[in-house]
Amino acid sequence: MSTPDQRFKDKVVIVTGSSSGIGKACAVYFGQLGAKVVVNYSANADAGNEVLEEITKNGGTAILVKADVSKEEEVKAMFNQTIATYGRLDILVSNAGLQQDSSFLEMTLQQWQKVIDVNLTGQFLACREAARQFVAQEAAASKDEPNHSELSIGKIILMSSVHDIIPWAGHVNYAASKGGIMMFMKSISQELAPHKIRVNSVSPGAIKTTINKEVWSDPEKYKGLLNLIPYKRIGTPQDVAKAVGWLASDDSDYVNGETLYTDGGMTLYPEFADNG
Ligand code: NAD
């Protein structure tokens, strides 16, 4: 019998928004690979508990923490609980996000603000706490024993979207939040690289989750969607989890400030495939 892959053995991972979809797949994936996982939810405790059970019933280690990523005190409390439980943090997957769609002419300030608060300010709050923790634990560790390792001391993976470069009418709040993530990610990567903290994004294309159920559950809309995907299939949350896993591993140690498009080629201008 082959030995199970434990590439994240004892690494502590927070995955925000992990009670469903892509975040859930990431939490389960890290759990399978030996990590200690912090499953985060903001509203649906039952869904969060299901993820927790899925990880632990397969021998994984996890805790469930309620926190709204757009609220500073709740984000701080989530990190505090993580450190109180596991003593450290190694990886943040800053995944929580939502859509509040409207034509631009009809969009309310509330719809704009909600998406920016969760998708962009939520990233700021979680990434800042993670970076502070990485720096603090490294300072504490190297007081006793200087760190001579060349490898990264902490990894941050932000969940962006192909809409960080593809404009999206009817979703300008969402596209603006994801475009913002791109420059936020690159800037903090530049600032944190000297601390040996690596920051990268994953930008999924169309992934089958509740966020876009309205599209993939309608045969006509689904057909239209496939026209936008050269690879001719919708992505799965597991496709994204594996991309996140690579960026969180030391296999990608020299990758900093990059965006990994995980989109079946959606960003390849598919409408030009027949000569435009
Ligand atoms: P989803 O709706 O299943 O997951 C989003 C998660 O974020 C949910 O678990 C939700 O509870 C959580 N969340 C929302 N607001 C929160 C808050 N204030 N605090 C904490 N958690 C909160 O959808 P998904 O497709 O899995 O989306 C996950 C991420 O992937 C999002 O950032 C989304 O923008 C991004 N994304 C998804 C797709 C796709 O096609 N599904 C494509 C590109 C990017």
Automatic annotation (TrEMBL):
Q: Which InterPro entries match?
A: NAD(P)-bd_dom_sf, Sc_DH/Rdtase_CS, SDR_fam
Superkingdom: Bacteria
UniProt-listed PROSITE patterns: ADH_SHORT (PS00061)
Q: Which Gene3D superfamilies match?
A: NAD(P)-binding Rossmann-like Domain
Q: Which GO terms describe its molecular function?
A: oxidoreductase activity, acting on the CH-OH group of donors, NAD or NADP as acceptor
Q: Which SUPFAM superfamilies match?
A: NAD(P)-binding Rossmann-fold domains (SSF51735)
Family of this protein: Belongs to the short-chain dehydrogenases/reductases (SDR) family.
How is this protein named in the record? SDR family oxidoreductase
